[in-house]
Amino acid sequence: MSKGRIFSGMQPSGKFHLGNYMGALENWVKLQNDYECFFSIVDLHALTSAYADTSKIPENIYNMALDWLSAGLDPEKNVIFVQSKVKEHAELHLLLSMMTPLSWLERVPTYKDKLQQLGAQGKDINTYGFLGYPELMTADIILYKAGFVPVGEDQLPHLELAREITRRFNNLYSPIFPEPQGLMSEAAVLPGIDGRKMSKSYGNTIPFASSPDELRERVRMIITDPQRIKRTDKGNPDVCIAFKFHTLFNKEEVLEIDQACRSASIGCVDCKKRLAEKMVNIMGAMHVRRQEYEGKPEKIREILEAGTERARKVAAATMEEVREAMHLQ
Asked: Would 68 disulfide with which of 25, 73, 101, 318, CB 3.0-4.6 Å?
């Protein structure tokens, strides 16, 4: 029996790397067995910072769907759909924007930070769409009357604002919506192969779509203890990026690897070979699924269309209630 309904989404911003998977998608795959899940490719959200060039959005949507299916999201268990194909998201966003105090939006912790960060990259995001991002996020969630949203600790302020907006709507009009609760997830933080944050801009990623040989090659490039020059030198796993990967992908051998490194009974080359084989085994099923779906692009489109149709039915019913409550019938 389902524990409740979940909504979550991701912006289509290009191909996944392994850090993206460990950050959220791995958790989604687990949640699908216990909850009724609505997972959306939120392409409207992508426009808040990428409105000037939308040419890559269709390709990014396809690649994201392929990544999700490869990871193990089951289209029979979940509603997997494209946000912009369900027009009710935009309608509810507009209605929420009419009643949300401007001060609530301006106090979002990341608002000014992102203005500065993206401004430094030459992007002008002094737009209503960027300021109103939390309203669209709220609309995404409550449109499906989702009781839960998987979040990390850094996302809690955004969810609390969504709860405030929901509460205000319920008080002004009618108690239609449940206040969404955060479903806390301890997402693993995966560093890049050079020790910095894993990011495409740094060129330090492990692509999620890596073949076994590509995966082995990227693992071979992971930096280890910089003080360990010779094979006979004793290492320090505490400063070794490869060891960090072991703690995530090779938990059963972590203690052994730690001791072997400190005693110099294993070298960095062999250490990374063992890591690579563990990662290849863990991701083997994902690679097989990817190969199956890559040869069937029409199948991916059919899955998105079917999911979108399921989402539309729920969204349309919700908006009937909203319009009635707001006397817009």
From this structure: 73
* Residue 72, C-beta contacts closer than 8 angstroms, at least 6 positions apart: 29, 285, 286, 289
Consecutive H or E run containing 186: none
Distance between CA atoms of 47 and 54, rounded to whole angstroms? 8
For residue 149, the SS3 value is: strand
CB 191 within 8 A of CB 248: no
Count of beta carbons in the 10 Å neighbourhood of residue 174: 13
Question: What does each C-alpha distance from 265 to 224, 230, 232, 258, 274 come to in angstroms?
Answer: 15, 12, 8, 10, 14
Report, in this order, helix, strand and coil percent for the chain, each rounded to 5: 60, 10, 35
Question: Which of 62, 81, 38 minimizes the C-alpha distance to 306?
Answer: 81
How is residue 77 written in tokens?
Answer: 């268990």
Q: Hey, CA dihedral for 319, 325, 326, 329, is it positive or negative? A: positive
Q: What is the mean pLDDT of each run of 10 residues along the chain (329 residues)?
A: 90 86 89 96 91 92 95 96 98 97 86 68 78 94 97 82 97 97 80 90 90 95 92 92 94 94 94 96 92 91 97 98 95
| Rounded Cα–Cα distance for residues 9 and 73 (Å) | 13
Q: What is the pTM of this model?
A: 0.91
CA-closest candidate to residue 222, choices 284, 279, 290: 279
DSSP assignment of 18-57 equals HHHIIIIIHHHHHHTTTSEEEEEE-HHHHHHHHTT--TTH
